[in-house]
Amino acid sequence: MQPLFSETGLKRVEEVARAGLLCAFDFDGTLVPIMSRPEEVRLSDDVRGKLLRLSAHAPVAIITGRALEDIRGLLGFTPDYVVGNHGMEGVPGWEARAAVHAQQCAGWKAQLTGLLARTPGAEGIEIEDKRYSLSVHYRAAPDWQRAAVFLDEVCAALDPQPRLVAGKCILSLVGVDAWHKGNALEALMELSGARTAVYAGDDVTDEDVFRIKRAELLSVRVEHRPDSAADFFIPRAEDTERLLDELIARLAACDARNWLRKETALHQ
């Protein structure tokens, strides 16, 4: 994983930033910083403005772990694609799989609620019901490491066993056959007819995208992590703004060249 804002990284941006690009982003930790109260997060005016300018040149997708009904109220604009629940909501055809995931989550929630109520050491642990997945938050727990180990043990007793995805003081529970962000991105590339794509994310759930090795996909991780499968990294969530600037500048230049070629051909 190399720095994106290096000669090699910016050359790669230049290669993908052309007609037919799909621009996809995670939300929390990528477009906005991680907050102790996720419900209070909003896009800054600067980031929203740059996403709107970007969308004038290329389709924009938000692929997030939040539920669709949650994320849509936080954006302040309408992207071309919005995918929630780590890839389970928003991609065409997702409704056909939704009932099974909802039933599984209802069962896990009932089991977890009972287990947490009966077990000492569950202080500060909260269950967020996203209908098709569950997120168990432990940022408020007195001892984060102990809470993480405790949750692994508790979730091992669930029936049926979920796929567990560990994040930053959060444990997501999804169906073992549920779509993930990688499935969602590839589906959106096909749906949009994208010839290239860029994806930026910051968490373990984004590794499902980073592990896709396609020449036409540029993957960017927020914060360096030695074991990440991402191609490049940017140091902080705030640096996503520079990524947006780089994409806008190159796509605008590409559009201008294409317009000039058309005008030249028209008057020959």
UniProtKB/TrEMBL annotation:
Removes the phosphate from trehalose 6-phosphate to produce free trehalose. PANTHER family: TREHALOSE 6-PHOSPHATE PHOSPHATASE. It comes from the Bacteria. The keyword Hydrolase applies. Gene3D superfamilies: HAD superfamily/HAD-like, Trehalose-6-phosphate phosphatase related protein, domain 2. GO terms for molecular function: metal ion binding; trehalose-phosphatase activity. It catalyses: alpha,alpha-trehalose 6-phosphate + H2O = alpha,alpha-trehalose + phosphate. Pathway: Glycan biosynthesis; trehalose biosynthesis. Its EC number is 3.1.3.12. NCBIfam families: T6PP (TIGR00685). Keywords: Hydrolase, Magnesium, Metal-binding. This is Trehalose 6-phosphate phosphatase. It holds the Pfam family Trehalose_PPase. InterPro entries: HAD-like_sf, HAD_sf, OTSB-like, Trehalose_PPase. GO terms for biological process: trehalose biosynthetic process.
